[in-house]
Design a protein that fits this description.
The chain has one domain. 85% of the residues lie in helices and 0% in strands. With 78 residues, it is an all-alpha fold. The mean pLDDT is 73. It has three helices and no strands.
Length: 78
């Protein structure tokens, strides 16, 4: 079975995290999650901007933007 580059990188990060102690490991995992969430939403926002250029109704774009903001606030609070 072939393993992709992303999988190998993930495995390396997991090994690194497993070598750390409890609280430090938790803090780093949380930082990684926040970075991944930001990257996901940046990609989503770029796609939404492309949709905007294709004359998608602004009502839908505003609704999606509100949803993204509320998700980010929820993630930050928890």
């Amino acid at each position: 079975m072939r393993v992709g580059v992303g999988t190998r990188k993930t495995m390396m990060v997991e090994r690194l995290l497993n070598s750390l102690e409890g609280q430090r490991q938790f803090e780093i995992r949380m930082k990684i999650q926040i970075i991944l969430i930001k990257l996901f939403y940046e990609k989503l926002i770029r796609r939404l901007l492309i949709l905007k250029d294709e004359n998608i109704d602004l009502f839908y774009l505003r609704a999606i933007k509100k949803m993204i903001v509320s998700l980010l606030q929820f993630k930050r609070d928890n």
